[in-house]
UniProtKB/TrEMBL annotation:
The lineage of its organism: Eukaryota, Viridiplantae, Streptophyta, Embryophyta, Tracheophyta. The keyword Endoplasmic reticulum applies. Residues 973-986 have a biased composition (Basic and acidic residues). Residues 973-994 are annotated as: Disordered. Keywords: Endoplasmic reticulum, Protein transport, Transport. Coiled coil: none annotated. One of its GO terms (molecular function) is SNARE binding. Residues 9-229 form the Sec39 domain. GO terms for cellular component: Dsl1/NZR complex. It holds the Pfam family Sec39. Its main location: endoplasmic reticulum. InterPro entries: Sec39_domain. It comes from Eleusine coracana subsp. coracana. The keyword Phosphoprotein does not apply. This is Sec39 domain-containing protein.
Length: 1275
């Protein structure tokens, strides 16, 4: 006992004890049945509620599920993972439990085919839709299936020690010869091991490529490297460099080698930049040579052209070069040195004058000089002087705009020579520059060609050579425009040469050129730059290059439109798989304002180039695009620019463009986790996709997506005013589709098991029904009533087999309760059992009402089954036997027997219902038919229950229980109102009773004898006492007022006095309201005298009751007001009532004035107006009537004059009686005119609604009596 009392001090020890208890329970042999586990859950709940209340229910459920998983009770654990009727687990906790249990099984396996592996899989199968659980399943598949197939065996205990999954991948690649060739399988294994990100997959591919290089498989390594280059994986730069400088491979042409080296240069270390740059330059030169070979179909001696390929012949020494050149002199060493000097002198300036020996040493060290000078330079010089193909090339240059800047063969050959000289540190001489300039200026040529030729001539050492060339070209030209262009350029050339003396640095010369040729160069630079930028920017589609800032700087430098560059980059990056949204946002953040200012261009670009290329399943990118469109349209609206107009559609949303795209952005982002959802089938750029909307939504409705899809549908369809006309699915439609899908699946699985009587299998059926209902009940509640009835009907259909088993006594109630035990929060709470019997009884009772002779027998058997269970559930459910119920074929029972039987049925059902009601707040409470057999037993039972009620909620439940018991103990006699006096009921008049002094009020005081006292008055007294103790006195007024509507008195006289004593000590005005609702005069006047005394002493404040309409209504309705008016001893209280009426009258008229001036209505104003109307239409006329009936004409007239704001000058005239009469007649005419359309004031916020309603029903008779009581006017 001491342990339980002090358990809260050592929570950790208690948790260990519970875990140990469940562990031992699960390990015992024989294996525990599902029923025993269900009993264990009930025991755990009892422990938690009675002894370990400091542990929450969620923790207890988690530990119980952990025990089930360790014991291998996976099917039962599946039911509890979904939660019970009282507690449920979060998705995260459920995943952790399953994953931990699966890991314990998996890591304890000594082989890859052991039973523990199977258990781990079964454990993970409990949550098949969880991503985290699927990751664990993937690891098991990788270790047990995929890795052994690749020749690698890793036991679970070994895998546990692996820190990086890449170690396993490397082990696979190097495990056996040729293992790297299983490329796809290796990638699949990597993904199963958790290497799923783009960077991780790239690392795996890199490892395969490196292993391929080690094994000499350069072709595979090359293919992999090309793929990695597209994804920007920089770590593979060294492999790319090696392949680019390596032997020939398929598809490895010079351009591809350049690309590989360029990528290497972008990612290499600092030490390798020089070497790689030299290699790239050499490749670039060879690339130019190859293009010339293809275009001219000629080649130098060291190259061989074979159709579409070019082969370089090996050159290992000087002999090889001479052999290729065809030399035959015996002194070849001297010949080749002289040859090199001779050839280079034709194109180079300032060659070194070293002797032959020095030249030999230099050429031996760098064979490319010898190879170029002896083999390639002669071929290039020959091409630069070739006249045959120039005409064709020039024609192509002018006829086709796309080839406008394609140079002639002579120009290309000359440029190749100059380019080789530049990268090898030689300066071209005037001869080669002259050749280049002449080639460019050859006719036909336009002004841009002349500008370019002039720019080349500026590089001459001797400027007079340039003048000579221009003069020669002028003599050749015949076209006036060409002559005029060249003359202009010639003059500009002369001016530049004259100014060149002032420009000593390259920067100054460059600035001079830019200034002089700005207009001339603009069109040329623009066209060339656009072409270069197009290929430069487009490269970001294949590789994530951070080049935007550099591209914008270049555009600014050369006068290009930066907006075009920005839009080009944005479009390319949006359609690229290499860039994610954050990367794009980061790259364009510096230029965001420029992009937004070009909103129209952005919108056009997205419509034409971007959106058609985006995959509908890429919802992250689509959401980002919608956001851009929203921002652009919002900018256009803010700047008052005309927005783009698109063709009108049949269905048009009611939002503006920026709002429409904003909704699409948000909703697309919310459903991005649904992998199978193609958002292009949901929405397009202009409207929703009406053709595929419903189909796409419905095929993606699952347990994990139903809420998100319902929210998305609600947001999207709300944009349209004609949703029904379009036939789009609604939020409720999504819910209905999901629920009906569950039902169809459930019915299909349960049909074969519906006739089973095995408790274990029957429990699975019932658990599945409850779990399905729990998972979708919130969706069912959101459906229309007709759909709810249909769905509940199908659920009930699943219970019919179980109902028939109960009726036929094939299973007992105890077994039935066992099926529901695992879902019952309290092990001794029969609520689920009662719900079960209520459900199964519905059809029997319905058919019994229709008069079927078969169903009374079924109901008899059902209730007999319930009755016979009392022997096994003593203290839980105790019911009388139902065996006396007549059976089919027996004689009909007598009237007394029928009455007793019906009474017994009612008592049993009321007991069942009451137990169910109190269980919500008093789970240990049990109400049996014997408890309700007599008044004494019922009162005793109720008083025992009330001992545990300590909150407003629990008292409210007890109040509802008492009202439920009314059908057992309330009198069946109809209420007969008290008879009026003979004078009131007389139907004749002889004129003898004309005196108003003797007229009695038509309202008689209700005494205790006119209404019966409630049989369970002591129980009601206990409820009222509890409410007073909880300071809920207003609820007491509601209860007493509600009882008066049933014409029954809840308290006896003594109890009323006792209640008055208690409440008056708290609030004397509240005490007065209570006693005015009771028919006992003694406590009424005792309370009035107490208030009067306190008012005279000044010890009570009336400020808080200055607008208490409820007190005025109760005083008017109870009949006490006449005594208050008549007797002097209540003068202070009467004065208070008159002041109260004046204050309420002022408030009423103020509210009416506000209402007339302010047409807009709000809930607060409507409530205030309703309260004012209650006073003006009902309470004030009743108060005036009471004054008149008691002879207070003067006071009544004075109050009416204030009410009607009568001018003071009229006070000199005796008009009081006339005013009172006209007021009463006007009120009576108004009430009679409204008739049944008079608004009900019982719906007011006051607690005494029935009192108000009664007073309203008596208003006409009260007005007529007051008019009769007025003195007759003399003619």
């Amino acid at each position: 006992m001491h342990f339980f009392l002090t358990a809260h001090l050592d929570e950790k020890n208690v948790k260990q004890l519970i875990r140990l208890l469940l562990s031992k329970f699960g390990r015992r042999q024989p294996v525990r049945s599902d029923m025993e586990w269900a009993n264990m859950w009930r025991d755990l709940k009892l422990f938690q509620e009675k002894a370990f209340s400091f542990l929450d229910s969620e923790y207890m459920l988690a530990e119980f599920i952990r025990g089930l998983l360790k014991a291998g009770k996976f099917s039962l654990a599946r039911n509890y993972l979904g939660g019970t009727s009282a507690v449920s687990l979060s998705t995260e906790k459920a995943e952790n439990l399953v994953i931990q249990a699966a890991r314990e099984y998996f890591f304890s396996a000594s082989t890859l085919s052991g039973n523990e592996i199977w258990k781990a899989r079964e454990c993970l199968n409990l949550l098949p839709n969880s991503r985290n659980v699927q990751a664990e399943t993937d690891i098991i598949d990788a270790l047990t299936i995929r890795l052994p197939y690749l020749g690698v065996t890793i036991l679970p205990v070994q895998f546990r020690q692996v820190k990086d999954s890449m170690e396993i991948i490397r082990m696979v690649i190097t495990s056996q010869t040729g293992a790297y060739l299983h490329f796809e399988e290796i990638i699949d294994v990597a993904k199963l091991l958790g290497l799923k990100s783009e960077e991780e997959i790239a690392a795996v591919e890199e490892a395969v490529a490196r292993e391929a290089v080690v094994n000499g498989d350069l072709q595979l390594a090359f293919d992999i490297c090309l793929n990695l280059i597209k994804r920007g994986h920089g770590a593979v730069w060294d492999l790319c460099a090696a392949i680019a400088r390596g032997p020939p491979l398929d598809n490895l042409d010079t351009g591809t080698r350049e690309k590989l080296l360029g990528f290497s240069l972008s990612h290499c270390d600092e030490e390798s930049i020089g070497e790689l740059l030299s290699a790239w330059k050499e490749l670039d030169v060879h690339d130019k040579f190859e293009k010339l070979m293809f275009s001219t179909e000629t080649n130098p001696p060291n190259f061989v052209i074979d159709r579409s390929s070019i082969t370089t012949l090996p050159v290992h020494n000087v002999q090889d070069i001479l052999d290729l050149r065809g030399g035959s002199s015996h002194d070849r060493d001297k010949d080749y040195v002289e040859t090199v000097r001779e050839m280079l002198s034709k194109v180079c300036m300032d060659l070194p004058n070293e002797d032959a020996h020095t030249w030999q040493a230099m050429l031996a060290e760098n064979r490319k000089f010898l190879s170029f000078s002896a083999l390639e330079l002669p071929w290039l010089l020959k091409l630069s002087n070739n006249e045959e193909q120039d005409g064709e090339i020039q024609a192509l240059r002018t006829d086709d705009p796309s080839r406008k800047y394609r140079f002639s063969t002579k120009v290309e050959a000359t440029i190749s020579i100059i380019y080789w000289l530049a990268i090898n540190g030689f300066a071209p001489n005037d001869n080669i520059i002259t050749i280049l300039a002449k080639s460019i200026m050859e006719s036909p040529v336009d002004e841009e060609g002349d500008v370019l030729a002039c720019s080349v001539l500026l590089n001459l050492i001797d400027p007079f050579n340039g003048v000579k060339i221009i003069e020669e070209e002028l003599k050749k030209r015949e076209c006036y425009q060409e002559i005029n262009s060249l003359m202009t350029i010639g003059m500009l050339y002369s001016a530049l040469n004259n100014s060149k003396k002032e420009c000593s640095t390259p920067e100054q010369r460059r600035k001079l050129l830019l200034d002089k040729f700005h207009e001339k160069f603009t069109s040329v630079d623009s066209a060339i730059s656009k072409r270069l930028f197009s290929s430069f920017v487009d490269s970001v589609k294949q590789e994530k290059k951070h080049v935007l800032k550099e591209a914008v700087n270049i555009a600014d430098t050369y006068g290009l439109q930066r907006t075009e560059v920005l839009l080009r980059f944005l479009g390319c990056s949006l359609v690229s798989e290499c860039w994610d949204n954050n990367d794009i946002l980061s790259e364009i953040s510096e230029f965001r304002d420029d992009i937004v200012k070009s909103a129209k261009g952005v919108i056009d670009m997205i419509y034409s180039d971007v959106y058609p290329e985006i995959n509908g399943y890429n919802k992250q990118r689509l959401s980002y695009i919608y956001g851009i469109l929203s921002a652009c349209h919002s900018y256009l609206k803010r700047t008052s620019e005309i927005e783009l107009r698109y063709p009108e559609h049949v269905h048009t949303h009611k939002l503006e463009a920026f709002q429409y795209y904003k909704v699409l952005e948000e909703e697309c982002k919310k459903v991005s986790f649904i992998d199978g959802l193609n958002y292009k089938n949901i929405a397009g750029l202009d409207n929703l996709n009406f053709e595929h909307f419903n189909e796409e939504v419905c095929k993606n409705i699952h347990a994990s997506t139903v809420s998100a899809l319902a929210d998305m549908v609600q947001s999207l369809v709300s944009m349209y005013v004609d949703v029904l006309a379009k036939g789009l699915i609604s939020r409720q439609g999504v819910y209905k589709h999901y629920v009906l899908g569950l039902l169809a699946s459930l019915e299909g699985r349960n049909e074969a098991r519906s006739n089973c009587t095995d408790c274990e299998k029957l429990q699975a059926v019932l658990c599945e029904i409850e779990l399905n209902y729990d998972s979708c009940k919130e969706y069912i509640q959101a459906l229309p009533a007709t759909d709810i009835l249909y769905i509940i009907g199908r659920l009930s259909h699943s219970m019919r087999a179980f109902r028939q088993l109960l009726i036929n006594d094939d299973i007992t109630v105890h077994q039935g309760q066992g099926q529901l035990g695992s879902q019952t929060a309290d092990p001794i709470n029969p609520l689920d059992l009662l719900e079960l019997y209520n459900t199964t009884m519905d059809e029997c009772l319905s058919d019994l009402i229709e008069g079927s002779c078969e169903h009374p027998i079924s109901l008899h058997k059902l209730l007999s089954s319930l009755s016979r269970s009392t022997e096994k559930h003593a203290g839980i459910l105790e019911m009388n036997s139902w065996e006396s119920w007549y059976e089919h074929g027996t004689s009909a029972p007598t009237a007394d027997e029928t009455t007793n039987s019906l009474g017994g049925i009612t008592g049993t059902l009321v007991a069942l219902r009451s137990t169910q009601m109190v269980a919500a707040v008093l789970p240990d409470a049990n109400i049996t038919p014997e408890n309700l057999a007599t008044l004494d037993s019922a009162a005793s039972c109720f008083l025992e229950l009330s001992k545990h009620a300590s909150s407003v909620e629990s008292v409210a439940v007890l109040e509802a229980v008492l009202e439920e018991w009314d059908q057992l103990f309330s009198s069946k006699d109809e209420y007969v109102p008290p008879h009026g006096s003979p004078k009131e009921t007389s139907d004749w008049s002889d004129g003898w009773d004309d005196g108003w002094e003797d007229l009695e009020s038509p309202k008689k005081n209700l005494d205790a004898a006119s209404s019966p006292i409630h049989p369970l008055h002591s129980c009601w007294m206990e409820i009222i006492r509890k409410l007073v103790g909880l300071t809920e006195v207003q609820k007491v007024i509601e209860i007493l007022d509600r009882a008066s509507s049933k014409h029954i008195v809840l308290l006896e006289d003594d109890e009323a006095h006792s209640l008055f004593d208690v409440v008056s000590a708290l609030d004397c005005f509240m005490a007065l309201k209570i006693v005015l609702l009771l028919p006992y005069e003694a406590p009424r006047f005792q309370c009035l005298q107490m208030i009067e005394a306190k008012m005279r002493e000044g010890t009570v404040s009336t400020s808080s009751n200055a607008d208490d309409q409820e007190l005025l209504a109760l005083a008017l309705s109870s009949g006490t007001l006449q005594k208050i008016i008549a007797e002097e001893e209540y003068s202070q209280f009467f004065s208070y009532l008159c002041h109260l009426v004046g204050h309420l009258a002022k408030s009423f008229q103020t509210d009416l004035l506000v209402k007339w001036n302010d047409k807009a209505s709000s809930p607060a104003k409507a409530s205030r107006t309703s309260e004012s109307l209650l006073f003006g239409r009902l309470l004030f006329p009743c108060f005036i009537c009471e004054l008149v009936l008691k002879g207070q004409y003067l006071l009544a007239g004075f109050i009416i004059s204030k009410w009607m704001h009568t001018h003071p000058s009229l006070g000199l005239m005796d008009i009081l009686e006339t005013s009172v009469r006209q007021f009463l007649e006007g009120q009576l005419a108004q009430v009679q005119q409204l008739g049944g359309s008079e608004p009900s004031f019982s719906d007011n916020v006051l607690s005494a609604r029935n009192t108000i309603s009664t007073l309203q029903s008596r208003l006409v008779s009260l007005l007529e009596a007051a008019l009769s009581a007025l003195p007759r006017q003399e003619l």
